[in-house]
Amino acid sequence: MEEKQRHSVAIYGRRQLVMEGVIQVVSFDETEIVLETNMGALILKGEGLHITQLSKDTGGLTAEGNFNSFQYVENRTKGAGKGILKRMFK
Fold first, then answer.
1. Does residue 2 lie within any of the structural domains?
2. Sign of dihedral through CA atoms 16, 20, 21, 24?
3. pTM value?
4. Is 3 within a domain?
5. 16 near 64, Cβ under 8 Å?
């Protein structure tokens, strides 16, 4: 039986984000962080964003800044990793 991977997001005072279930960081700058998670692509937006900790082994990520929004981008087809990213950056 396949064990489900843990996925969680906690935001503290809109200034710190702690997350589990990160597969990779697709792109990041001070206004946007794009992640591939075990629950789909996730876009974090805000100001002064920076990643303070990332563990590829455990899938943990910690980021700081002023977070304004986060949005999951749904996987519409199976095995579509690059397809999702192409749609996001049109």
1. no
2. positive
3. 0.77
4. no
5. yes
pLDDT by 10-residue block (mean), the chain, 90 residues: 74 96 95 95 96 94 96 66 56
Domain of 80: which CATH number? Answer: 2.60.40.2000
Length of the chain: 90
Domain that holds residue 20: 8-88
In a domain, 32, yes or no: yes
Q: How far apart are CA 90 and CA 86, in angstroms?
A: 6
Q: What is the pLDDT of residue 2?
A: 45
Of the candidates 49, 56, 60, 76, which has an alpha carbon nearest to the alpha carbon of residue 21? 60
